[in-house]
Write a structure and sequence with these properties.
Blueprint (H helix, E strand, L loop, with lengths): L2 E9 L1 E2 L2 E7 L9 E3 L6 H13 L3 E16 L2 E14 L12 E7 H6 L5 H9 L7 E5 L2
Parallel strand pairs: 1-6, 5-8
Antiparallel strand pairs: 1-4, 2-3, 3-7, 5-6
Length: 142
């Protein structure tokens, strides 16, 4: 059975660095965010996820684009649709993970380029963003 997941992702950039997270002890990074729950919008999901995971208030500024990713897990194939937004953090709670299984880091553009980030196509699209407001479309695994 195929599993399709809809996830809201945040691109948070401060002082030329991007906020990423990963599971503790794991090599791969990802843009913060999480699954959109029934009854909530994608921006609401991001505000909730950032509050839960980072203990920070945030504001969704604008929709950047979408990314789809297909990959395999021990439970089978996953088709992931990521809705990607520019987000700013409104509070400064120390930028420390509120969840024991996650860690956050600020990566420069060069560090982001060299990091193991999933989906890779989303990382590459974010790095390619210019000052233009053209939308992101990234696809991987198809």
């Amino acid at each position: 059975m195929r599993n399709i997941e809809c996830i809201a992702r945040a691109v948070v950039e401060e002082d030329g660095k991007f906020l990423l997270c990963r599971g503790k002890g794991l090599a791969n990074w990802f843009f913060p965010g999480g699954h959109i729950e029934e009854g909530e919008s994608a921006p609401e999901a991001l505000v909730r996820e950032i509050a839960e995971e980072l203990g920070e208030e945030s504001e969704v500024m604008r929709f950047l684009g979408a990314s789809e990713n297909k990959f395999h897990t021990k439970n089978g194939e996953v088709h992931e649709i990521n809705l990607v937004f520019k987000v700013v953090l409104l509070s400064d709670g120390g930028r420390v993970s509120q969840e024991d299984h996650l860690e956050f880091a600020w990566l420069t553009r060069d560090e982001l380029r060299d990091a193991v980030v999933f989906p890779t196509s989303l990382r590459d699209a974010v790095l390619a963003m210019s000052t233009k407001e053209s939308p992101i479309w990234a696809s991987e695994g198809f």
